[in-house]
Task: structure prediction
Amino acid sequence: MEGLLEEDSLSRREKWEKDLYEDMKSRLENLSLLYEEALDLCREPNGPIEYEERILEERDQCLALAHTDNLEDLVRGLENLSFGRLKSTKSEGKELVKSLRERGKKTLKTWQENYRLLPKELEEEVEEKGQKRILEIVRLCLLFLERYQKEKEERAVLDFSDLEHFALKLLYQDGDDRAIEAEAEIEEEIEVGKEGTKEIGIGKEKEVRYSPLADELAKSYREILVDEYQDSNLVQEYIVRALSQERF
Result:
């Protein structure tokens, strides 16, 4: 369990680091365009040309960060950013240039405050303690599940989840019901489509075998109305699918 947890933690970390890095690079490129706009205004007739040198320096800082190779180098570069004072000028358009520069400066300063490189020892300590807590939570959940199942058996009762899973056993042929249950266990890993529609079970219709009971019941229902469908889970989706005439 510890090995799997460690491997999964590393995989997830690599993913969010990559996503964060790509997002920050994209935003840095947009910030450099903001500085370019400010530079164009500086170079206009009667523009605040006195600001050009400082704006140019800060634009180059953005571009340098956008061309780093990884998140660690980017964050380290953030720590070394500096913002000097603008030279005095009475030129027209200076307020617009200052506002554009301030937008870029504010974003970069916010990143400087929010992103830090932890010492390796501290990072490993946080990771180790976090894994220990997660393993203890897993142990307690498994213990609760074992005792809960035993209590239900002693009282000869079923909960709502039991009813759903027994329905699968009735509506699907042996083996397919267990395959659906296994898929349901990783349902949270399945992404929701861009339009907000569920993508659960896509492409599974031809892979499962319905029971004779499911075929008989499906032929007796002309329509099935599902209340609060957006809150249904994968098991419920398969139950409805087994009872639907549309699969014939």
Notes: The longest helix spans residues 2-42. The mean pLDDT is 84. The radius of gyration is 29 Å.
